[in-house]
Amino acid sequence: MKTWTRSFIGLGSNLNDPVQQIQRACEQLDEIPQSKRKKVSGFYISEPLRNGLTAPKPNQPNYINAVAEIHTQLNAERLLDELQQIEQQQGRTRSHKRWQSRTLDLDILLFGDQQILSERLQIPHAEMLNRNFVVIPLAELTNDLILPCGESLQTALNKADFEPLEVVANFRDQIQLGTEHISTSNPQGRRGHSA
Ligand code: ROI
User: Fold this and answer.
1) Ligand 1 atom 3: the closest Cα is on which residue?
2) By percentage, how much of the chain surpasses pLDDT 70?
3) Neighbours of 191 (CB within 10 A)
4) Using a 6 Å cutoff on CB, does residue 43 contact ligand 1?
5) How many other CB atoms are there within 10 angstroms of residue 68's CB atom?
6) Average pLDDT of the chain, as a whole number
7) Is the pLDDT of residue 182 over 60?
């Protein structure tokens, strides 16, 4: 019998209605074979990451970021194939430019307690502990996570002193106002993102 692995997927989008992109991607996670989606964090708004502390703010729209937990019988490479297929279905064109806007980015952050370094994969995701838009939604999903390096996520979060992030929507908790999708948990209809 195949064993189940608990994996966390980072989701990000800053183009073509990012809330909707993340919403659709979460639904697509349900279609991955031999896998079950367990939880999705809130959808957080975050400023585009700077390429270094002194770099200017990139001239691109803000991002919507979330983290989903899935349990899967696939191995990490097969899971990556499935995630890349979802990215492509949602109009992602892969270029070699790292700091570019994107309709959808799906990253395997953690895959059980495995540490993987291959041509296609680095797990745990190399930068995850430096990114508030990864660690904050991840901590929302799990309060007892021990990272493969042996450190607890909570310790990593406390050390990092991140800027807080605002939740602008929740998975499947959407109402449609005009052309915009706004979370019902955001009754003032605040415009959460500039994309
Ligand atoms: N910045 C934010 N805030 N969120 C992302 O998901 C994100 N993804 C990226 C780069 C371009 C590094 N910046 C990001 O790939």
Assistant:
1) 48
2) 86
3) 11
4) no
5) 23
6) 87
7) no
**47 C-alpha vs ligand 1 centroid, how far in Å?**
8
Token pair recorded at residue 16:
């073509």
Pocket test of ligand 1: the residue of 13, 14, 15, 132 to mutate, having most ligand atoms within 8 Å of its CB, is 14
pLDDT band at 97 (very low <50, low <70, confident <90, very high): low
Choosing from 6, 17, 78, 105, which is the catalytic residue?
105
Is 113 one of the catalytic residues? no
Dihedral in degrees, nearest 10, Cα atoms 80, 59, 14, 178: -170
63 lines ligand 1 (CB under 6 A): yes
Measure 106 CA to ligand 1 centroid, in angstroms.
11
* H or E, element range at 39: strand 35-40
pLDDT of residue 104: 96
- Residue 180 has a pLDDT of 47
- Give me the helices (H) in 45-175, please: 76-89, 132-141, 153-160
Centroid of ligand 1 to alpha carbon of 189 (angstroms): 25
